[in-house]
Amino acid sequence: MMGLCEGGNELPGYVKAIYFVSRCLIVAEEVSLSGGQAVQRVRLLEELENPGYNSGILDNDLIEYYQLLAEKGDVQAQVGLGQLHYQGGRGVQQDHQRALHYFLQAADAGNPIAMAFLGKIYLEGSDIVKQDNDTAYKYFKKAADLGNPVGQSGLGLMYLYGKGVDKDYGKALKYFSQAADQGWVDGQLQLGNMYFSGLGVRRDYKLANKYFSLASQSGHVLAFYNLAQMHATGTGMMRSCPTAVELFKNVAERGKWGEKLMEAHIHYREGRLDEAFVTYTLLAELGYEVAQSNAAFLLDKGDVSLFLEQDVFVRALMYWGRAAAQGYSAAQVKLGDYHYYGLGTPVDYEMAATHYRLASEQQHNAQAMFNLGYMHEQGLGMQQDIHLAKRCYDMAAETSADAKVPVALALMKLSLLFSMKYVQESRWQEWLLLFNLDQSLGPNWDLYLITTLVGLLGIVVYFRRPQPQ
């Protein structure tokens, strides 16, 4: 442990590494074949501003609808509900009893996915289902024979560790390869483990990294953990402590304490805002970026009654800053807004522009680009530059379709300002002299103009008169 991601003699980085690794070890030991319970991250700011924002939380009415379909024999509904209760998440608690109920119904109808998940349930065992290798093998084999990757991966795992069958690395490699070729995350993870440890194959860290990376794209906790170990020790790749810490953090946040995120969101939806804030602040101190931004959001909206009015924006600014430091672009924009309007801090246009520029350049945030354009247009915190303002507005419109209408209005205003500036800078007095009609046409120029207009009117009336039949 002493050599893990030491960054010179800087104690904070060293302590941070030990802290993440210790939490990761706890999470990794608790992860089963299911890949761990899903942790739902709901951003309150995006949920409010975007009506189409998909938080992933299922409404009770929708769940009841699927339950009705399942009871009527809809196999797809049975499989979906079985997976939902087996994995947990999306506002649904883990419940292996109900998962077993739905999977048994779908398996009796010949569904290979349900068979494979029944194999996983019996292979793992739980308080609900007694661990049984023979039953697990039976279901895995049925599913694998039907070409299901979950069943293939399950068989590979049984041959890899000799659970209920003789240990056979060759068969394990074959089944894992079949599952990985179909994109199944467990097959990719176990292939990575075999190449990393040289089990039945020649040790190959590049292939191990490839399969761990593929599994991590599907969110498997152990894939993140294994990649973090490789980056931390420089195994098969260049050593990178920042990457290792980010990966370890991803693992650490998937522990059971992450369930508090859903608890806080339930408080929020039920109107217990102070309780939601307290839970979010607890998780914010543990380093959850979503919790930091949500705590700041509640303070920003004035939904928290625990502090004096003058302290609210100061605390919100602190949490927005922490979330922005972890790469959340909306929080970076909020920091710019707070410095622009002087919320919790003195008005500082230069600092506001700095935060907008960071969000624009690093996270390509359309709102930040638009705000930068406005500050260039008005010369706030920087030299006034209409050309740079137009460039920022155009970039915002290209980045987000939602920005097209406000950008169009801003560009119309900008064109008007540009025209006015052009007239002011041009020799407008000389242009007015050219249009001095008294000198050009004489004192009776108004009679000439009226005669011309009457003639034009007569021509129009002539051509628009009714034609004879």
Relative strand content: under 5%
Compute the number of helices.
Answer: 25
H/E series, N to C?
A: HHHHHHHHHHHHHHHHHHHHHHHHH
Shape: elongated
Low-confidence stretches: 6-14
Family: Belongs to the sel-1 family.
Organism: Periplaneta americana
Protein name: Protein sel-1 1
Keywords: Membrane, Transmembrane, Transmembrane helix
Please describe the structure with a list of short key phrases separated by commas or semicolons.
about 70% helix, single chain, about 475 residues, mainly alpha
Please, could you describe this protein's structure?
With 469 residues, the protein is mainly α. It is 70% helix and 0% strand. It has 25 helices and no strands. The protein has helices at 11-30, 44-49, 60-71, 75-87, 96-108, 112-124, 133-145, 149-161, 169-181, 185-197, 205-217, 221-233, 241-252, 260-269, 273-285, 289-300, 309-325, 329-341, 349-363, 366-378, 386-399, 404-425, 428-434, 437-441, 445-464. The termini are far apart. Pfam families: Sel1 (PF08238). InterPro entries: Sel1-like, Sel1_AlgK, TPR-like_helical_dom_sf. The chain crosses the membrane at residues 445-463. Keywords: Membrane, Transmembrane, Transmembrane helix.
